[in-house]
Amino acid sequence: MTQANDKPTSGPFEKTAGWLDWYTGPSQPTFKLPAGAVDAHCHVFGPGAEFPYAPERKYTPCDASKEQLYALRDHLGFARNVVVQATCHGADNSAMVDACASSGGKARGIATVKRDVSDAELQRLHDAGVRGVRFNFVKRLVDFTPKEELLEIAGRIAKLGWQVVIYFEARDLPELWDFFTALPTTVVVDHMGTPDVTQPVDGPEFELFVKFMREHGNVWCKVTCPERLSRDGSAALAGQQDPYKDVVPFARRIVDTFPDRVIWGTDWPHPNLKKHMPDDGLLVDFIPRIATTPELQQKLLVTNPMRLYWPEL
Ligand SMILES: O=C(O)/C=C(\CC(=O)C(=O)O)C(=O)O
Prior knowledge:
This protein has ten helices and eight strands. It is of the alpha/beta class. The protein has a single domain, classed as TIM Barrel (Alpha-Beta Barrel). Strand 4, helix 4 and strand 5 form a beta-alpha-beta unit. The chain is globular. Bound molecules: (1E)-4-oxobut-1-ene-1,2,4-tricarboxylic acid (NQM). The site of (1E)-4-oxobut-1-ene-1,2,4-tricarboxylic acid has 11 residues, from loops. (1E)-4-oxobut-1-ene-1,2,4-tricarboxylic acid (NQM) binds next to loops.
């Protein structure tokens, strides 16, 4: 049986130089997740031998299979996953769809689609558990797609009741504002809009993000990725119970201000981290530092993601 500490493999592909593999042997979290908790942002990679990486990809990861993801889910104490299509698979959603389809209803997916996707394919994705598309504006990950093409896709998926997940860098929010605020769906922002956490939490950059959420009730936020955003050097490793201190004020502000529009996820297998790979057990222990009461934790981990991804339950 696959365990959460199985070793990563890379199949027929050669990993990007300097690639950090996901952490094996994650610790048992001290924080006990509420029953029914959802890991609302994670990925599967390949395995490349079965689901080849896309020719247009900007990085080649180590494999991170559905079995390994679900072993981690069980180890950490989550009940469900939302599997987000990663750019290394381009618009070929096969690995993500396969993960959802074989989860016994415990996983939903976020896909990448192109303008030429057929209605039949959208319906097939829906039937497999897909509930949204991701628009990625992070320049190191994707080539530019014209906004009118994305708006056309958003209009079509809105009819299925899907959401749009947006991934962008904070400095690009002013330029993307008009486009984001024109989206006709629920909009879910990855990683708090990737703030520069060396700036003040009430400085102009993060104020703009808070204004974006305050003025647009359809905008939700993943308070994820302290390990990606942190600049203070304290990692969730070796039993460290107080890592990523510089990210805490940002995440806590969003959770306190918009408790009904926040969700959380591991971001396993943590693509493209450069300095360290976190122990996912310790990442779970980060949650009570940003959602500081049982009520906030219940909303963040259960009520909110269930409303977004399993509204029928
Ligand atoms: O886990 C994430 O969200 C982050 C990624 C990879 C990614 O999103 C992708 O490949 O689509 C990143 O910042 O490199």
